[in-house]
Amino acid sequence: MQPAPFAPDETGRLIALRDLKLVDTPPERRFDRVTQLAARMTGSPIAIVSIVEETRIFFKSISRDATTAVDLGSPHREYWFCSHVVAAGRPLVVGDARTDDRFDRLAVVSDDPAVLAYAGVPLRAPTGEHVGALAVLDVEAREYSDAEVGALAELARLIEAELSALPHLAIDALTGALNTRTFSRLGDRFLELADSRGLPACLVRLEVRGLSAVKAEFGFEAGDAALTETAQLMGSAVRGSDLVGRVATDAFGVLLFGSDAAATKAVLSRLQKATAQHNASRDRPYPFRLSFDIGVAEHRPGGSADVATQLVTAAMMADLRL
To answer: What's 212-264 look like in SS3?
Structure first.
């Protein structure tokens, strides 16, 4: 096997790792949603956030299909896929690791089940050094498309925002949902990949009813609470691999990848139940009741792969109240 070279800025890279406190630390749930998204967007059974230290690889997040029994172990830096990503500072795609002399004798490649395909993109520290990779792996040989690698690069920006002192570059500071720009950018990638795989998708636009009245009666902090509680309810109703974003002052968008109208109806049913339970709770700082105007735009392969257009369509079709 060919060992991965060190990065040109290896010393500075290792200093950045220590400054970020990413070495000798356990997995972090704040990255799990990104790996879930990466796995679903690419149809991969495994997605990882890896940190490449001087001699070892640390996995900060691993998302895996429940039926996938691959053991990634504790890889050595010299021979792991992500080390090549960090050293080169650019994406790496391996269609069949058994035919690549850099990886053909790795334990995870020779084991049964084995990791055969890999696609990874670099993760940068706020100061620019490459500290790790966001990657997807498959137990079947396959070629990852340029669109899938591009989607991984978009998702990597979410992790980089988390590592920076400015997470609001990607995340709405109040609710924790994606901000409008990030939701639209990632959503367009979602729709592009759905088209390439012949899968449906649905976009739900949810507007909080009476937000101005809540603020007028209980104050602006109550209005903020209404938005935060709405984001939490939506998060409990959707999968971790669905996109949730704040798309207007009083509105959220949810992009359900691979979901048709029937699957979307099930999500809305869960949201309705969760909202009813929430409104019935007495353990709340303000007594207002949450309710929503909801519109759904169903995307089918070949349709407009533009989230902004889909949001407008969903707003025009807001015929459901919860």
So the answer is: HHHHHHHCHHHHHHHHHHHHHHHHHHCCCCCEEEEEECCEEEEEEECCCHHHH
